[in-house]
Amino acid sequence: MAETRRQDPLKEVERIHRRILARMDRSDKRAAEREKQWKERRQKRRAELRASGFREVSSRQLLAAVKRLSDRVDRILKAREAKRKTRKKRTG
């Protein structure tokens, strides 16, 4: 009788362990499916962008383009400010 009492808790632990493993397997499968869907959506979006005439650029290329734009805006603003100052001097 004492032997069966010892086995019962072990059986319960084994049953719980199997349930945990099954849940982990289902979770892993769901995660793999989500990743697969994400990759498929990403490929689809990239294809749509390419079809629309867009191209992929590296982060360095994008940063360089933003810097060029920023420099261009700075030059334009400085030129406008200089133009305003010369107008004020003429009318001044």
Written overview of the protein:
With 92 residues, the chain is an all-alpha fold. The chain folds into two domains: 1-56; 57-92. The chain is 90% helix and 0% strand. It has helices at 2-51, 59-91. It is elongated, with a radius of gyration of 33 Å. The model has no long low-confidence stretch (mean pLDDT 91).
What would the keywords be for this entry?
mainly alpha
Topology (elements, then pairings):
Layout: H1 2-51, H2 59-91
In total, how many domains does the architecture comprise?
Answer: 2
Tally of alpha and pi helices: 2
Class computed from helices, strands and strand pairing: mainly alpha
Strand content: under 5%
Roughly how many Å apart are the termini? 111 Å
Largest sheet, strands/sense/barrel: none
Uncertain stretches: none
Query: SSE string, helix = H, strand = E?
Result: HH
Number of beta strands: 0
State mean pLDDT (0 to 100 scale). Answer: 91
Helix percent reads over 70%
